[in-house]
Design brief:
Number of helices: 8
Order of helices and strands: HHHHHHHH
Distance between the termini: 24 Å
Largest sheet: none
Radius of gyration: 15 Å
Strand content: under 5%
Helix content: 55-70%
Structural class: mainly alpha
Number of domains: 2
Shape: globular
Oligomer: single chain
Length: about 150
């Protein structure tokens, strides 16, 4: 999955205007103008397509957390740059939507995925933990589809 695919899926799930998306980017400390955002939301074969990249997606997800849950005065600042990966994207979406374990099971169930507690927990472990499991693109894609299906209930 590309960063643009993930951003497009979030846009579809949120069912909001592009102007609201620009606001969410700003909440994540990333200035994006409406034309650039429009390019991010185009399909790859469109001549106006723009690659949003990991920095933009990460900022959008941080902004989404602030948008859904309110801004935090005590933001964690990291000394080292954290590389955005599927596990971190999953974690940020879980935080933004305040998803509990039962919600995660419902989301995966909506797309016909049976996931055990151990498998689910391994996706949210810190990299390097003995039970950490890298989240494949297919699981993230199905999670985003399930989130879209279940979003009205959350």
């Amino acid at each position: 999955m590309t960063t643009n695919d993930i951003l497009q899926s979030c846009f579809k799930t949120l069912n909001i205007s592009e102007a609201k998306m620009v606001e969410i980017f700003k909440l994540g400390n990333f200035d994006v103008n409406p034309n650039t955002l429009s390019g991010y939301l185009k399909s790859q074969d469109d001549k106006e397509f723009l690659d949003c990249g990991y920095e933009a997606l990460g900022s959008f997800l941080d902004g989404l957390i602030a948008y859904k849950r309110g801004s935090s005065d005590n933001k964690n600042t990291l000394d080292e740059e954290v590389r955005l990966n599927n596990n971190l994207i999953l974690k940020k979406l879980r935080i933004a939507y305040e998803l509990k374990e039962v919600d995660l099971y419902a989301i995966f169930s909506a797309v016909d995925i049976d996931i055990t507690k151990g498998e689910l927990n391994s996706l949210f472990r810190k990299e390097g933990h003995k039970n950490y499991r890298a989240c494949p693109d297919s699981i993230l894609q199905l999670f985003l589809e399930g989130l879209e299906i279940c979003e009205a209930e959350l």
